[in-house]
Amino acid sequence: xxxxxxxxxxxxxxxxxxxxxxxxxxxxxxxxxxxxxxxxxxxxxxxxxxxxxxxxxxxxxxxxxxx
Length: 67
Prior knowledge:
Low-confidence stretches: none
Largest sheet: none
Number of helices: 2
Oligomer: single chain
Structural class: mainly alpha
Distance between the termini: 33 Å
Mean pLDDT: 94
Helix content: over 70%
Radius of gyration: 18 Å
């Protein structure tokens, strides 16, 4: 999936897929699982980016970096 897809968009896709699964059954399970994985991956990447930003802010405040 494209990296510009938001968590909200993936959550909406999961909800819609769940609705379709209710109507059509297990045929859509692979798509649902893929969406779940994409959402988990995006959340993991966003969390790492947040941690990196906090680390850099702290290092700058402590004078450890000058860039």
